[in-house]
Amino acid sequence: MAEMDVGRHCQVERCRRLDFLPFVCDGCSGVFCLEHRSRESHSCPEVTVINKRLKSDTGTSHPCSFRDCAERELVPIMCPSCEKNFCLRHRHQSDHECEKLEIPKPRMAATQKLVKDIIDSKTGETTSKRRKGAKNSETAAKVALMKLKMHAAGDKSLPQTERIYFQVFLPKGSKEKRKAMFFCRGWSVGKATDFAASLASLKNDNNRLTAKVTTGCNSLEVLE
C-alpha cells in the first residue's frame, strides 16, 4: 500500500517536524512548522540582509549641525546659504539661525514714514488751529459780555453781587430791537417785566385789573 504524501517537513534541521498545514516564509520561501514560521525563529537570510543594511546606513548617516541637536538623517540636507548639514527639524534658515539669513526689508518703508510724518503734522496743525479758534471765540465772548454789562440799563443802586444781566429783545415797533438790562436776583418775573418795560419806555397795563396782560418784551437772553 502506497504511503500518502500529506503535509511538509519543517526545513529547520533540528526540527524536521511534519506539519500538515505548513507555513511558507515570504522572505526566503522556505517551508516551516508553526513554531518556526517567523523569520527570527528559522534565521531567515532576509533578516540578516536587512540588519546589515541598517548597520551600514547608520554608519553613513548625517548628523545635524545645529547646536545641541543629536538628530541624524540617512540623506544629507544641506543649507544652500551656509552649506551646513541639518536634520529635518532644523532644515530651514530660520530654524537653524543661519548666519547668512537675510531679513527682508519692508517695502516702501521710506514712503510710509514720509506719509506718516505728513499725517502727524497735519493732525497737529489742525488740533492747534482748533484750540486757537476756540480760545479766540471764548475771549471774544468774554469781551462782548463785558461791553454789554458796561452799557446795560438798570437800577444803579443794586450791588454787583445781586445783579443778573439779560439781553432783552423788544417787541416790534420799538425804537430798539434789543437792549441789555440788569435786574435784582430776588425780583419776581412780574416785577422784572415791569421794570424792563419802564426802561424801554413801553406801554405797560399789567397793573390794571381790566387790561389785557402783556409782558412788555418778546424774550430775554441771560448774559450772566
TrEMBL record:
What keywords is this UniProt entry annotated with?
Metal-binding, Zinc, Zinc-finger
Q: Name one GO biological process term.
A: cellular response to arsenite ion
Single GO molecular function: zinc ion binding
InterPro entries from the UniProt entry: AN1-like_Znf, UBL_ZFAND1-like, Znf_AN1
- What SUPFAM superfamilies does this protein map onto? AN1-like Zinc finger
Residue stretches making up the AN1-type domain: 4-52, 58-106
Q: Name one GO cellular component term.
A: cytoplasmic stress granule
Species: Bos taurus (Bovine)
Source taxon at top rank = Eukaryota
Listed name of the protein: Zinc finger AN1-type containing 1
